[in-house]
Hints:
Elements: H1 4-18, H2 43-63, E1 78-86, E2 92-102, E3 115-127, E4 130-135, E5 140-143, H3 146-159, H4 188-193
Amino acid sequence: MVDTKMLIYGLFSLYCLIFSSCGEFRLKQHTPKEFINNVIVTRALYVKDSTQIQDTLINYLKEHRHSFYSKEYFDLTQIIIDTIIHNDSCNKFIVFVITKNPTYRQRNPINESNWYYDATSYIGIRNKENIHLAWIGPNFSNAKDQSELSSTIRSAYFTEFATSDTIGGGMYKYNMNDSRFWGAPIWRKVGDIGGGGH
């Protein structure tokens, strides 16, 4: 005879594996090969963009704005530009950002480690010599290992970002490694930010 409690528990566990806490379907959605973004930029441009992005993010951190709203972030927080992806005109880009913080800054410190890492993403546009960023997330928090977190965010942004497209009129229709991402409605977020890198 089937134990009813065990059956209910099993069905609930299966439900939790398939659906996220928001009730949204969370199976991976891989970008079709013909749409994989393969733009390669010069090292000079990559370094230039990285420096400008870093300077902008440092200002956000000092003012506790956008992804740096938490008081856990402070003057000694290290901002690491993990990845920059450009479109073929090099006037739009996606940035994966990792922060490194001492464990004592956590609300619930991880005792086994001296550092913890958070990650998020921004999109940006270049207007002549100026850049403008918009924080789009999602966020990843409290990782113990930087390289593991880097792999995690790449996997999430390249295979799961598009699965969030249940709201916002197609805002999250494509993964971040999809060449069609550059024309998606999500770029309105940068326009809403306005000038001056805010």
